Amino acid sequence: MKKTTKTTEWNVISALAEIVETAQFSALTPKFWKSVDEPIKYLVEKLGLTPKQVLIIAILTDIGGCVTWKDIADFLNIRRINVMTLTDEIDDLIINKRWVVNAVSVNSYRGFRLANGVINALRHNEVFTPKPIENLTNSEFLSTISSYIEDNDIDNLATQDNHIKYLKSIVKKNTQLPICAEIENLEGLQFLVIIHALAQYYFYGVDNCHINSAKFSNTATFTFRREMSSGESKLFTSDLIEFYCEDGMIDTDFYRISDRVRDVLLADFTPEMDRNDCKQDKSLIPPESITDKKLFYNPEEKMQIEKLASHISQDKYSIICKRLDEKKMRKGFTCLFYGTPGTGKTETALQLAKATGRSIMQVDISEIRDKWVGQSEKNIKAIFRRYANNLKSMEVTPILFFNEADAIFNNRSTHADSSADKMNNTIQNIILQEMENFEGILIATTNLTTMLDPAFERRFLYKVEFKDPQTDVKAKIWKSLIESLSDKDAHYLAEKYKFSGGQIENIARKYNMEYILNGVVPTIDVIDSFCAAEIISKAKYRTTGFAV
């Protein structure tokens, strides 16, 4: 353990650096605390934090990003259970001092990170001053809770108790606002739902997904869901929540703030929504974030893709929709990309979005099916509902994208005896109904057309089959991915191996890895060996490939 240098000329950064260097692998022994007594005292006085909070800030500053309990334990060389002694200190940093916020790591582990602005203040040897959360206007209150939910990547408000505590503290500090005075005594699921509904002011509100994922007992969740579905919950009887209603149809699976909340409790609030802001829906991928990639097609596919790209271009799409509407025809552009794995179906959808300047709302198929009875069906409805709201709120029509959709766009069972078959049939019927009335642009990809229910075929306006690339197309793919190949070698590889674009990309990655590791450009013989290994792997393990 490093011995502290005695000095009286500390600044914030040098004191934090001294603490963090000494703390690593220290196990927080008394010897450690004694050795950092001087910089700790300096920062306690300078920053207004406790000694343990100074240590936490030092660690978060040094590691950066989202720091989990395990990260802290590994850094200090102590057991995770011993790190829990810092819980109260971190709670205070989150809820009261607001130097720290909850966060999610790239591996989806829950942790913490420094609040925005902390690092900048420390760099300038200043004390961080968070934005005030008391005496807010209605507009500031809604903005504060919405930003907190977005900044902390909260899909539902029950992911951590700290979220609840912090949001309740905001409400209690703003009881001068009628809405806060009305909801400050709400607890548990009632509080979660109204907060989410307020945060989603611009959109459809909340659905049962937020209730099912809450950390409450199954009995409490079931009872609350029943009360919500029947309209018996206090949220309804107090006229805080209402069922979502569109075109005269009430949907009892979705809730939003009531007209009384909008018109009375939030009377002085005028929404000013940026219609181009894609941050409101995190499943939206803006076109500028899609990497530009050149794709090669067989002549027939190329003609179909170019025609589709022309139809959904921003200058022609609105004209086509207007004329279809005048003729009382459905305006939805529904497209199916099907065929061999690795032939570019997924990448084509992404490149179409980029070329036409459209955001793409990619559906995570794995999150649709749920253990709760009836919830999978509601998840499907929620996807189309969210897309419909994105469609209304954005100037440029986004694309709804179901990748590898064979998991849900499949055959219905004629003899649905099991609950799983019944659920599957219900999901298919919901999708078919949604597609019948669909407005916007939908693209689905699948490798398994034999599993596609015939009822889906007429719902897809455009059906593009992606076949294995022809020899001259494969040669172009080889040349584009391995630029050092001669035309002769590219055609040799294209003729010898019946690879899809995805498989050729695999070989190109191995080629580049070999060059990076050894500093020598792989010869055609080495590339040949990579190709042979790809064939052996496929034969041995019977892989079905992957969509590109």
Which helices and strands appear, and what pairs or packs with what?
Blueprint lengths: L11 H12 L6 H6 L1 H11 L3 H13 L5 H8 L3 H4 L3 H9 L4 E5 L5 E5 L3 H6 L14 H14 L9 H12 L5 H6 L4 H12 L6 E2 H5 L5 H13 L3 H4 L3 E6 L2 E9 L1 H7 L18 E2 L13 H13 L2 H13 L6 E7 L5 H11 L4 E4 L11 H19 L5 E4 L16 H18 L4 E6 L7 H4 L4 E5 L4 H11 L5 H10 L4 H18 L5 H18 L7
Parallel strand pairs: 7-10, 7-11, 8-9, 9-10
Antiparallel strand pairs: 1-2, 3-5, 4-5, 6-8
Helix content: 40-55%
Task: Assess the beta-strand content as a share of residues.
Answer: 5-15%
Mean pLDDT: 82
Distance between the termini: 51 Å
> Biggest sheet, open or closed, and with what strands and sense?
6 strands, mixed
Count helical runs.
26
Order of strands side by side in the largest beta sheet? Answer: 6-8-9-10-7-11
Shape: globular
Radius of gyration: 28 Å
Low-pLDDT residue spans:
1-7, 209-215, 273-279, 538-548
CATH domain fold name of the largest domain = Rossmann fold
CATH domain class of the largest domain: Alpha Beta
Decide which structural class fits the backbone.
Answer: alpha/beta
Say how many strands there are: 11
What's the structural domain tally?
4
